[in-house]
Design brief:
Blueprint (H helix, E strand, L loop, with lengths): L13 H4 L5 E6 L3 H5 L1 H7 L7 E5 L5 H6 L6 E6 L4 E6 L2 E5 L4 H8 L6 E4 L2 H4 L13 H15 L12 H14 L5 E5 L6 H16 L1 H10 E3 L1 E5 L7 H11 L7 E3 L4 E5 L15 E2 L4 H24 L5 H6 L1 H15 L8 H11 L8 H4 L3 H8 L1 H9 L5 H15 L15 H8 L1 H4 L2 H16 L1
Parallel strand pairs: 1-2, 1-6, 2-5, 3-10, 6-7, 7-8, 11-12
Antiparallel strand pairs: 3-4, 9-11
Helix pairs in contact: 5-8, 7-8, 9-10, 12-14, 12-17, 12-19, 14-19, 19-22
């Protein structure tokens, strides 16, 4: 932390503390994206002042340590091509580390809480290929034992030694069931297809292993919303903190930088109400699949491709990578394959918009940040399009090129291999480790191998 006079620290005044909104949303995964997206939409909704958020951290407690002295306040920096816009966000009225299970369980037992939202990343759900809890994961299996001992035994829920987000959520829902609180909505805001359906399946699968009565209660005690979320949010730097201080005259230990663009599409019912997010620009639709596919394949898929290829070509941020003709051409070819399978949504204007967003030189969206959990991201963003292309008799060469680039990055130690693989694994072995179906497609494997040969000759 820089040496800034305490009087300059961003914080709530006494009058502001008296006007804090009641907690009606509990969030798991307090990070930059949640604060640039759901918290921002809530503040900008016409009734946002009635919807306070209690936010719990995800992997580390650092953000809670930063925001607690500020009363949850932070500065949102919208970074345009030429200038920044600064906005103080006050929607988060309570912050706590994930380890504060007592507070979490207490909040979920309150009937006034209407929504539990989640941003815990694809990998954070720890689900298997069938969408259930990954019992092969030691952390999940340990949590399962704790849940069974605590819930089946009717023990104090806060005594359970659980660490995974879904296990903590299930404890909170059990607390709600025990006091007969009204139904609430679960709102996943992570980038994977059918996120609402998958979260329900994972929760129900875990509950069935823990306590059948809880599993039965979930059918009426919760709804699960499907969402498509979109706002580029790079990691905050010390330079960003100094920029906020210079612009506002206040020191913010945890500002958030994001692009001006934002998008949120939701589908599902909120039994206990919700903020009027549509007044801040959100869209509510009956069928979310076309929207989530467009975003997941075109934005997130291109990000993954740019991260892999860009790192190999010596770039460090998205704007550098998209300015490289070779990287840009890979993305263009990938989008052409995506577009063949996107119906009911506009594609050409979206692609042009993405190129402009990616090219913003003032957005320091680091490729190494985007490249985390690459294996999981490829399975969600590239592999489905490859299957669709192959099902229609095409080679899937653009998807194969992205996967070929990935195998090179693994071989060079730039990215980790899939579980059970090594940097010395062959291209065929890596593709099979990524997805057995693609690995068994000899023609597709040959297309990947041809792409690897072409890339190595560049």
């Amino acid at each position: 932390m820089s040496h800034i006079p305490s009087a300059a620290r961003l914080s709530l005044g006494r009058a502001e503390r008296g006007r804090l909104a009641p907690v009606r949303i509990v969030h798991i995964g307090l990070g930059a994206f949640h604060r640039a997206h759901e918290a921002w939409y809530t503040q900008n909704a016409v009734d946002g002042a009635d919807w306070g958020i209690a936010a719990f951290t995800g992997r580390t407690a650092e953000v809670a340590r930063q925001l607690e002295p500020q009363g949850g306040l932070y500065t949102l920096v919208e970074r345009g091509d030429e200038s920044d816009r600064f906005e103080t966000i006050s929607t988060i009225v309570r912050v706590a580390p994930a380890s504060d299970l007592v507070s979490f369980i207490d909040l979920l037992s309150h009937p006034e809480v209407a929504i539990v939202s989640l941003t815990i990343t694809e990998a954070g759900y720890r689900i298997d290929e069938a969408g259930g809890p990954d019992l092969g994961d030691r952390v999940v299996s340990d949590d399962l034992v704790q849940l069974q001992k605590t819930i089946r035994g009717g023990r104090n829920l806060a005594d359970a030694k659980v660490t995974t987000p879904l296990a903590r959520l299930l404890l909170g829902l059990e607390a709600r069931r025990r006091v007969a609180a009204p139904p609430l909505a679960i709102l996943p805001c992570d980038n994977f297809p059918n996120n609402g359906r998958m979260v329900r399946r994972a929760l129900e699968g875990l509950a069935e292993l823990v306590e059948p009565q809880l599993a039965t209660w979930l059918s009426t005690g919760i709804t699960v919303i499907s969402t498509s979320v979109d706002r580029i949010t790079p990691r905050t730097t010390e330079a960003d903190r100094q920029a906020v201080l210079a612009a506002t005259g206040q020191w913010d230990e945890s500002p958030v930088v994001c692009e001006p663009f934002s998008d949120w599409v939701l589908s599902g019912e909120f039994p206990a109400g919700r903020p009027a997010w549509e007044t801040a620009g959100a869209r509510f639709v009956a069928d979310i699949e076309p929207w989530e596919r467009r975003k997941l394949w075109m934005l997130n898929g291109a990000h993954t491709a740019l991260a892999i290829f860009g790192l190999l070509r010596g770039h460090s941020v998205v704007s550098e990578s998209i300015a490289d003709p070779a990287c840009r051409e890979m993305v263009r070819r990938l989008w052409a394959e995506d577009a063949r399978h996107l119906r009911g949504v506009e594609v050409d204007d979206y692609a042009a918009q993405l190129l402009s967003r990616f090219g913003n030189p003032r957005m320091e969206h680091r490729l190494d940040q985007i490249a985390t959990d690459t294996t999981t991201k490829l399975r969600l963003r590239i592999v489905p399009v490859a299957f669709l292309e192959r099902d229609e008799g095409r080679s899937g060469e653009a998807c194969a090129a992205v996967l070929g680039t990935w195998t090179i990055a693994v071989a060079l130690g730039v990215l980790p291999p899939p579980v059970g693989m090594s940097a010395g694994s062959s291209v065929a072995e890596l593709i099979t480790g990524l997805d057995a179906g693609l690995g068994n497609d000899s023609e597709f494997r040959e297309t990947v191998e041809a792409a690897v040969s072409d890339l190595r000759s560049c």
